Amino acid sequence: MAFDIDMIKEVYGRVAERVDAAREIVGRPLTLSEKILYSHLWDGTPTQAFTRGKDYVDFAPDRVACQDATAQMALLQFMHAGKAQVAVPTTVHCDHLIQAKVGAEADLKRANKTSNEVFDFLGSVSNKYGIGFWKPGAGIIHQVVLENYAFPGGMMIGTDSHTVNAGGLGMVAIGVGGADAVDVMAGMPWELKFPKLIGVKLTGNLSGWTAPKDVILKVAGILTAKGGTGAIIEYFGEGATSMSCTGKGTICNMGAEVGATTSTFGYDESMDRYLRATKRADVADAANQVKEYLTADPEVYQSPEDYFDEVIEINLSELEPHLNGPFTPDLATPISKMSEAAKENDWPLNVQVGLIGSCTNSSYEDISRAASLAKQVSEKNLKTKSDFTITPGSEQVRFTIERDGFIDTFNNIGATVFANACGPCIGMWDRYGDNAANGPRNTIVHSFNRNFAKRADGNPNTLAFVGSPELVTAIAISGRLDFNPLTDTLINEDGEEVRLEEPRGYELPPEGFDVEDAGYQSPAKDGSNVTVSVSQDSDRLQLLEPFEPWDGNNIMGAKLLIKAYGKCTTDHISMAGPWLKYRGHLDNIANNTLIGAINIFNKKTNFVKNQLTGEYGGVPDVQREYKAKNIPTIVVGDHNYGEGSSREHAAMQPRHLGVKAVIVKSFARIHETNLKKQGMLGLTFANEADYDKIQENDTFNFIDLEDFAPDKPLTLEVVHEDGTKENIKLNHTYNDAQIAWYKAGSALNLIKAQNA
Predict the structure, then answer these.
(1) How far apart are alpha carbons 753 and 741 in whole angstroms?
(2) How far is it between the farthest Cα atoms of the chain?
(3) Whole-number mean pLDDT of the chain?
(4) Per residue in 619-671, pLDDT tens?
(5) Which CATH number fits domain 558-755: 3.20.19.10, 3.30.1370.10, 3.40.50.2300, 3.10.300.10?
(6) What is the DSSP string of 599-665?
(7) Do domains 5-317 and 558-755 have the same CATH topology?
(8) Could you read off the pLDDT of 666-702 as tens digits, one per residue?
(9) Of 156, 136, 137, 131, which Cα lies nearest the Cα of 146?
């Protein structure tokens, strides 16, 4: 029986009434995304139609999921919410704090020792507040959610941007910051601007070397890293229904890289098969009773241009395998063009490492197809030229692929199997030890999502390319970035010319999934007697102090902390990797604030001017001096500021250090929300060219902040070093409720006051 089956049946019990009412109100057929959104309104049965991209709407998600790095801060905040138990089913997954170094067994043992304090804290908090706890080694949050909790037509939020993976099982699953999760766990409504809708029609069928990963790599090339912002991507067509459930999950997962709110697919037979294979026949049976409500109305997919804001069509029969990168996940290159592109850009052709797995491509199907290629190494007397690693997504997958001989196949070609954890995908990869910052220029290929500079191994000179597990495996065998397995041959150990045969695999294990210990720990039925303790001497955990409320006055005399040049992701604002160990200690992790951002005035990282001394120093050090002198500061950024991970630390750290406002050309959705939740001003230039007016020695006055109101721009008075002044118009998207957060000092401050 599935977890939370009663909750799932309750959702299905009301879906017909709510969707029928929404269809009547909207006055037309509905997409799947709209059905899920309208059936999860906080106020219940729909009574009004909402305008996409404009109206803020309160929703009631069915569940919450947290990974260990973000769960620390989320649960530290929840402890202040005044609740005895979480209001909706919630889980915590220990997957981020396990560093990949030697291999699964040794790495897990080391993590349990070095992060024991954090794991004990998360386990005890989960036990106290009725939260399901998945222990270290159980698997990556998104794979575990897909195997155990995701269900068609549901809505969930998670404190990781790749929560969207659950769209592979027909959910609207959205990545959020921890403060949003706290709202839902505390029984409060969750607010979201009603998304726009992008439809992707998939025709034809995947075959040969092309995989589901290539669909999203192609989409990323079309939409770019911000083209999906504020939208849900809904996939449909014969190509969608012919694809496996886990393949759909792969596509949805990487949709975060185009800025999409989430991605999803309509319920079909592949989802039914996957639910039954993962021992959730009860969910499949319940879904089949309302299946017409778990996909779009027929008219929508027949005439998608009439119902979506944008429509993309991809013929899977013509789709080529792709490699995306380096340094951005939306630079898409078909494999047939890679040789030419590599020469034009002087990309190193020798591939040092190929990595497959992670939450994105760790399904049984992915691993079995990669294993079919690995098996050919010995059969064709080849030798793997690149280092090769495998990261299973869950203990259930790992146990099953070991049972079926795939791990032996990988071991036979010299591969390393890492722990069931995020590992290299999030920078938890001890590839260079302490010398990562000075690592050599080199090329790696992987089946993860992100490939920002320093993302995987901390080396700014590593060029990382994203591809399907099949293509990554083939390239690792060949050792070359420009190897095209569709046309190229390899020379084996006998000097013979051989060709890799097309990968073969299984959608689901022929003998079924199996596992001895999945790694799940149920919470106490009554957690009132459970004690959660945090040592005052800990450098890993720190109880939170509420942020100060706004004093109601204009902000005057502010200084510029940094004007960021170009791409500034949450990795630049609050790095992962070795810093993950401080995710539960706000003051300690604040020492990495914006150290990856490039200062436009000197093109250096972590080197900004201290206006008090005239000298240059590290960003956190300079900001701490401003804070000590009670001098307000601002941060200025470019387009899509804060793209990437959902980590709210990227908002909490500047807030903790005393930054008052972040002013940019445009925001990534989650980061803008995180800033609002933490009582920060997140503002955009009304005229993007005004970004160029900001100078290093300027002083800033927010001269009309006292009149802060929805739909009313703010005015920034810029005082230049020579005494001249000019006013800049700043836009914002704050509504009344969000302005109340700002006035209270944070959304949590307001929740706590309301609960009291």
Answers:
(1) 11
(2) 79
(3) 96
(4) 999 999 999 999 999 999 999 999 987 788 999 999 999 999 999 999 998 89
(5) 3.20.19.10
(6) ETTTTEES-EE-TTTS-EE-HHHHHHHHHHTT--EEEEE-TTBT-S---THHHHHHHHHTEEEEEES
(7) no
(8) 999 889 999 999 999 999 999 999 999 999 999 999 9
(9) 156
The residues annotated as belonging to the active site are 95-96, 160, 450, 645, 647
Name the fold adopted by 320-430+439-486: Aconitase; domain 3 (3.30.499)
Looking at residue 601, what is its pLDDT? 98
Q: Using the predicted structure, report yes or no on whether residue 351 has a pLDDT greater than 80.
A: yes
* Residue located via tokens 């992100």: 450
Is the CB of residue 394 less than 8 Å from the CB of residue 144? yes
CATH number of 5-317: 3.30.499.10
User: Cα-atom radius of gyration of the chain, to the nearest Å?
Assistant: 25
Our measurement of the distance from residue 452's CA atom to the centroid of its chain's CA atoms, rounded to an integer in Å, reads 13
pLDDT tens digit string along 142-177? 999 999 999 999 999 999 999 999 999 999 999 998
669 contacts 256 by C-beta, under 8 angstroms: no
What is the model's pLDDT at position 297? 98
Place of tokens 């063009």: 337
Task: Write down the domain spans for the chain.
Answer: 5-317, 320-430+439-486, 558-755
Burial (Cβ within 10 Å: 0-12, 13-18, ≥19) of residue 703:
middle
Residues 44, 13: Cα–Cα separation, whole Å: 13
Amino acid 153: pLDDT: 98
Which of helix, strand or coil describes residue 717? strand
Other C-beta atoms closer than 10 Å to the C-beta of 98 total 28
